[in-house]
Amino acid sequence: MNQKIASLERVSFIILLCTIGLSIISFLPASILPLAAVKTLLVALGVMSSLIVYVFARMKTNTVEISWNPLIITGACISLAVAISAILSQNLSSAFFGKSFSVDTASFIIFSFIAFYLSYFFSKGKKDRTLYVLLTILGSFALVALFQCVRLLVGPDTFSFGAFSSVVGTMLGSWHDFGTLTGFICVISFITLEFLPLTKRLKIATAVVFGFSAILLVVIGFSSVWMILAIVAFGIALYKYYLDMHVDDKKWLSKIPVFSLVIVVVALGLSFKGYVISGPIVDKLKANYYEVSLPWTYTVDVAAPTIKESPLFGAGPTHFVNQYMKYKPQVINSTQFWSVDFISGSNFVLTSLVTQGLVGFVLWILFLVYLFIYGCKGLVHSAKNHVARYTLAVTIFGATFLWLSLLTYNPSHVILFITFIISGLFIGEYVREHGGTIKTIEYKEGKKAVRILVQTISWIIIVVSAVWGLYILKHAVAEWDFQAGVYAVTTLKSPSSAAMYVNKAVGMYPSDAYYQAQAQLGVYRINQLVGSIGTSTPDQATLSAIASTTADAVTAAKNAEKVDPTNVYNYLVDAQISEVAARLKYPGAYDNAKAAYIRAAQIDPYDPSIYLAYSQLVFLNNDFSEGSVGLSAALQLKPDYTDALFEAAVVSYNSKNFEIARAAVARLIAVDPKYPNAEELQALIQKNSTTPVSQTQVAPLKNTPVPSIKGIQPITSSTTGKTPKR
After folding, report:
1. DSSP assignment of 372-428, as one string?
2. Is the dihedral of CA 70, 73, 79, 81 positive or negative?
3. Distance (Å, rounded) from C-alpha 159 to C-alpha 169?
4. pLDDT, tens digit, for every residue of 443-453?
5. Cα gap 249→239, rounded to integer Å
6. CA neighbor of 18 nearest in space, from 57, 47, 53
7. pTM above 0.70, yes or no
8. What angle do CA 161, 164, 170 make, to 5 degrees?
9. Half-sphere exposure of 550 (CA within 13 A, CB side)
10. CA 655 to CA 281: how far, in whole Å?
């Protein structure tokens, strides 16, 4: 390989290295770009740029490397299965690119696998590249950890930069992500102490890193991270003992890996009783963190009917929430998380059973099985060279730690990206030390057909990578404009500026979320116009402005429905706009609002809040019979639904059904004694007054703002008798 070609490959590796480092430490103020968008953009542009340069380098050598490693083949099959699942989903754009740059899009998963392949090809060629990657991760982590420690000690207002609202907000994503990366650093520093013959200074430095990361883990206080650390440490102890067994000049007692076993015991102890130590520290630092995730049993409850519905490729990436709404276990309505729409299952791999079907799930399991097999082979047939043995061990156990973490929760972009990078490094290390089924195909000028085919495929990869990266960039620019619109309306109180930015976002990337914002800004503007009228008679210009704004808002809501007919929030926004229009006596608005609620309920049939919203709408039209059905349905799904109980009491009182009103308000006070106006309403009912409840006596239940409404239609015979499997 000549110097120019080697330089191209080096540039490709450096781009990937920079992508790894920047993906860890990068962020922008939330008013400019959300953290998920920043991470997605960096990974997409970095990985695609590295791939393009790498393909150019291979084109210069007139060679193609093909690996028949089962992990490489399985990874390619997963990427293909994810792409097919996205194509077959109900919304290709959402499944492939997402709406809020979520980690489970087909794009990001494929980006991660491309990074896996690149790190594999880079590390199998030169052993020092693995060390460069580990040092990059360590250096970036040091910056994040220092930043986080300052915020923990000084307070959340320090270095918040408009991006972190609490001390548990991190550059990585969630506090759990920070704990996972800290655990990974703890593992690699532990392995460094165990397997590398270090100088005194390096040993002290490594011990400091190990101790610092361990202390951070105590402060973070995740028992699952400690348990995984204990499992990995036990594996390291077995490996250390296996290596020392072949050293004849050691006594049997000195062969016992005491340090590793101590780490196992300590990690196990902190896994079960760590809260005794970490609890007071967390309270002192105000670093309490609560993560709501769907238990695995409920994830299976969602997966089972989804597999019957779409057995091979599932519902599609990012579509877990759709299936959750459709097959929500009704027992959740009796918990405080009844209004949460879970966008993923209990962990990353189990979520794939819903989003990627049996094909995707089996391939993921196969990938992990192959990773385990090659890990065992790599350890058993360990290299004699200290550095080679170290890089193999650190990538095997590092990948094991990260994959075990992915089996306990849903990671953010950074953790998933690093998991694939480390896995690729391990396969590269294994192939370099133990060989592998790699075939290098050289196409010379004489083999014209082969040369044309390979060159064509290479150019297709380059063009697709460039277009793909630019599309993600376009999406990010649209999100930038959208966030500017949000800032304009919430902070600057300038709806006109907000509308300008949101319109730019729609023009750049026509997302249903942006159309929703257009519609809601329309409602904001309508309320302003109506408020400006007061008690005076409105002039023609004001009436025309109200009419045109209402029409534009309804159009925006309809556009959102066209972009994604599976998104319940699009119909709830439509219902809100139509309800405003109905109050202004626009023809057809009332019927459209009813239809929107009903369609929303068909998408999300087990959430009582839309039953309530639907009943409130029809009550306004004096349709007490249909409204009572909706209200009854809401209480059937959630008997302790305080807002519905209050509405039932008010409506029953006004209808002179005093017994029902008395029972409803008694139940309301039993559930929430401090519910606003509940005692006043109970006093009126006790008097058995024939005077209807007025707004001056008891404040009527206000409509829930659309962004926090979920969705349910009045229960039909097809949903009433449904009992979720336990």
Report:
1. HHHHHHHHHT--SSHHHHHHHHHHHHHHHHHHHHHTTS---HHHHHHHHHHHHHHHH
2. negative
3. 11
4. 665 567 777 88
5. 18
6. 47
7. yes
8. 115
9. 24
10. 56
